[in-house]
């Protein structure tokens, strides 16, 4: 199937999950996770109406920016971001979804201040407590939100999470519900319901994430096909 056909099928699944949860499918933002796909594939997804594209790797993102791969759609950074690469990302993307440490937050603030802009971000929640994964522990997320709110060159628009890959469906949904509860609580207490995005769910679980409250999903292989790692 073509990328356009895959996007149409994913949108049908989004609509079904949203309606099942009594929600408007139009409130769900579909981010095409375009890692390891070339500029032509990105352009095809944009032509098919993808809401945004998301990249995981700074070097790949920079190359495709030079090829005008993202013209016509917002670009998000959705992967692990090293502090020494923040300068290459801030100001080049509309949203950094993966801010998972105070050190990274401080670096984004510093670079954004030097560039004279405000960078929109999401705080990443390490909901499964995985040692190898970045992100704030659920118990630390409110304090991280307070720290971010005190910075003048970042703007927190919500939360993002990636549950452990080996979690079964029931556990996965509990993780999604836990992060949604955090999102609602922090949004109400600190941001006066100004949050925009709860980014949860990928190709294998985005429908369940929507049922649990996600309004942004990051879908790669279901749109672009299987990635071939070398």
Explain how this protein is built:
The chain is an alpha/beta fold and 230 residues long. The chain has one domain (3-224): Alpha-Beta Barrel (TIM Barrel). The protein has 8 helices and 8 strands; from the N terminus they run αβαβαββαβαβαβαβα. Strand 6, helix 6 and strand 7 form a beta-alpha-beta unit. The radius of gyration is 17 Å and the shape is globular.
CATH architecture call:
Alpha-Beta Barrel
The main sheet comes to: 8 strands, parallel
CATH superfamily: Alanine racemase
Q: Radius of gyration over alpha carbons?
A: 17 Å
Shape: globular
Global mean pLDDT:
96
Tally of contiguous helical segments: 8
Predict the CATH topology: TIM Barrel
Strand content: 15-25%
Which spans have pLDDT < 50 for at least 5 consecutive residues?
none
Helix content range of the residues, please?
25-40%
Instruction: Report strand order across the widest sheet.
Output: 7-6-5-4-3-2-1-8
Summarize the structure.
By secondary structure, the chain is of the alpha/beta class.
Sequence-ordered SSE layout with sheet pairings:
Elements: H1 3-20, E1 29-33, H2 39-47, E2 52-55, H3 58-66, E3 75-77, E4 95-99, H4 102-115, E5 119-125, H5 141-149, E6 154-161, H6 169-190, E7 197-200, H7 206-211, E8 216-219, H8 221-224
Parallel strand pairs: 1-2, 1-8, 2-3, 3-4, 4-5, 5-6, 6-7
